[in-house]
Write a structure and sequence with these properties.
- The protein has 191 residues and is an alpha/beta fold.
- The protein has one domain: P-loop containing nucleotide triphosphate hydrolases (Rossmann fold), CATH 3.40.50.300.
- It is 48% helix and 19% strand.
- The protein contains seven helices and seven strands, in the order βαβααβββαβααβα.
- The strands form two sheets. A five-stranded parallel β-sheet has the order 2-3-1-6-7, with helices on both faces. Strands 4-5 form a two-stranded antiparallel ribbon.
- Strand 4 and strand 5 form a beta hairpin.
- Helix 1 crosses helix 7, helix 2 packs across helix 3 and helix 3 runs parallel beside helix 4.
- 32% of the residues are buried.
- The chain binds BIS(adenosine)-5'-pentaphosphate (AP5).
- The site of BIS(adenosine)-5'-pentaphosphate (AP5) has 32 residues, from helix 1, helix 2, helix 3 and strand 3.
């Protein structure tokens, strides 16, 4: 298999981290060297140097600080070598000033992705997953905001595809169907 760098995005709570974990396992079972890189975790490692210890707090930092962390994280990911790198990140981050792009053109240039996947789920499923996830201190959001963010995600995804020249694939993560969702991403990566 030729080396690939897949960027996998989705609104918070859609289940992308869960899906990516399973995609990685499927790739490893197939003998492919695959790495799951959580962009937010790499940013948090840098943010800890500023005294920030909780991932949810990063989006409350001044915009200039968030951008610096973004650039550092992208540069660090660009150095990674694996046949298949699965980059778990966001198209946009909700901040006090509005939505900050997670993958502005300079970050896309540094990451040089080969594939884009957008994970989607029904609004009620996203609300339920956010509220029942005890591993995170998650933001609660109303249905109308989630609908609007789903539309925004598709628009930014299209722009990212044009900038990077990468194909985009939109995959539904239906309730209790992680295996099917992961399999759809896995099959697309084998192309
Ligand atoms: P990040 O590290 O990506 O946050 P996260 O909390 O790990 O991820 P999400 O909130 O997106 O959750 P998820 O959709 O992956 O859901 P999960 O699999 O956990 O980002 C943290 C921060 O980093 C951001 O806020 C931002 O500040 C910063 N950041 C990141 N990228 C950035 C960038 N590019 N630029 C600037 N800042 C950036 O699943 C949720 C729950 O649902 C779980 O309980 C799970 O078991 C359940 N579930 C999943 N799938 C299913 C299913 N099919 N059926 C039933 N339950 C399911």
């Amino acid at each position: 298999m030729s080396a690939k760098r897949a960027v996998i995005v989705g609104i918070p709570g859609v289940g992308k981290t869960t899906v990516i974990g399973r995609v990685r396992e499927l790739l490893i079972e197939k003998g492919v060297s695959a790495k799951h890189v959580v962009f937010g975790t790499i940013m948090l490692d840098e943010a800890k140097k500023l005294g920030i210890t909780e991932r949810e707090r990063m989006r409350t930092l001044p915009m200039s600080e968030q951008k610096k962390l973004q650039i550092k994280a992208a540069a660090s990911i660009a150095q990674m070598t694996a046949t298949l790198t699965l980059i778990d990140t966001h198209l946009f981050i909700r901040t006090q000033a509005g939505y900050l792009p997670g993958l502005p053109s300079e970050i896309l240039t540094t990451l040089a992705p080969t594939n884009f996947f957008l994970i989607e789920a029904g609004v009620a499923d996203v609300i339920s997953r956010r509220s029942s996830d005890t591993t995170r201190n998650r933001q609660t959001t109303d249905a109308a905001t989630i609908e609007m963010e789903n539309t925004l995600a598709r628009g930014i995804l299209a722009a990212s595809s044009v900038i990077s020249g990468c194909p985009i694939k939109i995959v539904r993560n239906e309730s209790n169907m992680v295996e099917a969702t992961a399999n759809e991403v896995f099959q697309a990566l084998l192309e």
